[in-house]
Amino acid sequence: MITRLLAVLPPQHRRDLRRVITGFAVAAFAQGLAALALLPLLQALVEGDTGAAWWWLAALLLASAVFAAVRARTQAAAFSVGARLSAGVHHELADALLRLPLAFFTPARTGALSQVAGRNVPALMSVPAHLVRPLVDAVVVPATVVLGLLVVQWRLGLVALACGLLVVPVLRWSTRAVERFDAARDGARAEASSRVLEFARLQPVLRSTGRDAHGLGQLDAALVAEHDADRRLLLRGTPALLATAAAVRTALLVLLAVVVLLATGEVVDAVLVPGLLVLVVRALEPLGTVGETGASLRLASNALAGVEEVLAEPALPAPTAPARPSGHRIAFRDVSVQVAGNTVLHEVSATLPHPGLTAVVGPSGAGKSTLVGLVQRALDVTAGGVSIGDVDVRQIPDEDLVDLVSYASQDVHLFAGTLADNVRVGAPDAGTADLDRAAELTGLTELVAGLPQGWDSPVGPGGAQLSGGQRQRVALARTVLKPAPVVVLDEPTSALDGISAAVVRATARELARERSVLLVTHRVGQVAEADHVLVLDGGRLAAAGAPGELAGVPGPYRRLLDADRRSGGWRLGTRTRSAAP
Ligand SMILES: Nc1ncnc2c1ncn2[C@@H]1O[C@H](COP(=O)(O)OP(=O)(O)OP(=O)(O)O)[C@@H](O)[C@H]1O
């Protein structure tokens, strides 16, 4: 556990943790020495050697003082190291997250991440603060006492060594057994609590549809599984813990019996018996408390496993030959992409106009979001390549790519702050005039003017004080404000009414005067103003060209157009401008 923790820590925190371990080891060694000094002290007192007795008393007091001072100092340091360590692991996680592809951040994963950051990392604080000391004591104190006994009373030392060698495997077996059942119980608990949360979240659906047997069935199954896991831990974990306690007590009895035998056989002086008994008890005491530390250790170990899992996620490879694009034309060359073992894009090739508006259309699941996500490396291609200005996006340094691409995804992400804070994310230096212009382009002007605090109005956590359509417009204003030459709009009008959607389409057209704009939409009837259209179907490029040209011939675009017209989404006006220049 400690080795695993050291492996995930940054170097500074690794050194801090090593110092804590060393401090506790020194204190435990001094504790063992203090107990050992009792024997020669008693011997000297019995023999009436007052001089030697004073020396041994001084040695005992010195060892006790070192023990008390080092233990107190290390314990105080251990608390602050714990706090720093948890901050360090948070930083490691943040760095790792920055290197992960955007495709990693699915809703399920972000839920798990909030658990890792909010619960697992703080739980690791307890390792230096509470767990290192009993673990170090359990190793160093018995080892010091046994070594001392081998020197002063080798027979008892050998028996103590044998007892230790027998107790340690029992301890390891019992800890592993309990850990296994405990981990299973933790998993069952996590599943049950997420089912309960899901049940609570689904109340509006469940109530409107009546009793939902499927949802309730899953909740029931999760609760039964949790109960079963609890029972297994109790029935099979408790005997394992009892076995540890029994092993430690047996060792204690054996050693006490050996002390008595040695005393009755006059191998050791009877007056030394109290000293030997103290030593035996002192050596075994820390082993007994390791069992109690086990629960916290298992918790920390499981918490660490969650952190390790995130850190082990494969990051986006860094550029091998970093280059800065001179132009901004986007090209897809024989692009294939596999997600979770399925090929979701098959050898897509296209060169997009720059500046210009390219619409990406196709049925649901055709691969539209995947294709446009490649431009900002939300994920990487499996084969082929995507380039901006003739430079493969995988060779563009992260910070340059961030500056090059402005992206609005289907899922709107706002944070608790003001309207202005949320819009300024991509252009922190933008002034109010720039904000007003972005508002105008995205149909936000009325909203801003209607709020008492205007741009300084708080939006609430996740933008909760705004409607779905307002949130989408704020996210769009953010994308528009960022002065990036490439703009990707993935279903930017899904939550908007017809008039607002028309404003956004006009904005996309306006931006396309100077930038490369990629617009993903289901509504084929609304892309007549595009310069170029890519029609995807089943992950393949089914057609590409100017909308007017594509509409004029039978084919996939015409079929989508007809379907859209039948569903009422058709709009007037088609351009016949040619495809990519
Ligand atoms: N994280 C993922 N794991 C597994 N499959 C995925 C994942 N993301 C996307 N896919 C699959 O990739 C395919 C293309 O998805 P994509 O979101 O690109 O399609 P889309 O055309 O944008 O769909 P929509 O119009 O419904 O948003 C789908 O079949 C989808 O199931």
From TrEMBL:
It is found in: Cell membrane. It holds the Pfam family ABC_tran. The keyword Secreted does not apply. It is a multi-pass membrane protein. Coiled coil: none annotated. Keywords: ATP-binding, Membrane, Nucleotide-binding, Transmembrane, Transmembrane helix. The chain crosses the membrane at residues 20-41, 53-70, 135-152, 158-175, 240-263. The keyword Transmembrane applies. Residues 330-563 form the ABC transporter domain. One of its GO terms (molecular function) is ATP binding. Residues 20-299 form the ABC transmembrane type-1 domain. This is ABC transporter ATP-binding protein. It comes from Kineococcus mangrovi. The lineage of its organism: Bacteria, Bacillati, Actinomycetota, Actinomycetes, Kineosporiales.
